[in-house]
Amino acid sequence: MATPQDGLRAEGWRAAAERALYGPGGFYLRPEGPAGHFRTSVHASPLFAAAVARLLTATARALGTDEVAFVDVGAGRGELLTGVLAAVPAGLTVRPYAVERAARPAGLDPRVEWCARPPAGVGGLLFANEWLDNVPVDVAETDPDGVVRYVLVRPDGSEELGAPVGGADARWLARWWPPAGPGTRAEIGRPRDEAWAAAVATLERGLAVAVDYAHVRDARPPFGTLTGFREGRETAPVPDGSCDLTAHVALDACALPGAELTDQRTALGRLGVSGARPPLSLAAAEPAAYVRALAAAGEAAELTARGGLGDFGWLAQPVGITPGGLGGGALPTLADPGV
Question: H or E segment at 204?
Fold first, then answer.
């Protein structure tokens, strides 16, 4: 378990979370990985990896190549990469990269290059599923006098208000998450904007996609979203390495020129994932096929459910290709039957 060397001294949430998640013994460096504590779209159904494989295929087509890179940022233990490699069509050569701070897991496909940061100068699809919500950020709270201050935290989770927020952080709040009065809170997403821009910049040509819990400027939660997860249950955010620390992402702030922002329900629908039940006529004609189709429909419904995974944000950023190169937009091409 990660333990700050300076005992119970209070510090900003960004520094505390960085240590708790990625420091020695940190939460994300544990052998069980994220799947041991919470379920993402990747773990919910192989339909998700198959949809990403279709997106990768569409990206290769837009690039006019049959050899393409797939960069999985925040790869966990390689679950998405494994699913995508199994789903890509014959004839498409994929150069897979797993970007992750944890050690490479045993048994992973030897084609996968395990790296600490995205490779530079590649062409293809960079995909970040639930990565940005774990890029640590500072938390701000407006005090009774209307002054916006950093929230400081101790390893036991107790908090106090610190210095006034200034400089680049204050400018970010003014633009993207304006203070809403005493007692309200905000997560300062500037480090996520910078992390996403740096990841996108590694692509020479292709498409970068971030998928995450998200909110937009006109609907920011007044008291923030910082929380913890442990063994499948939501828990208090305590920065001692015992739990995940996550906060929803201001994806609209991350977006660069030319980006498209939509929700998972829409994006997966464009990629051919539908929760529609198979016709009853199939049950009489081919009972086994009906059962398989019904199971797939149930998994698709979970991936696209309103109030659940379907509400996740998808940020699609084309790089070095025009929106028309993907059929009129970064994601709409995925409705193309040829994908």
Answer: strand 203-212
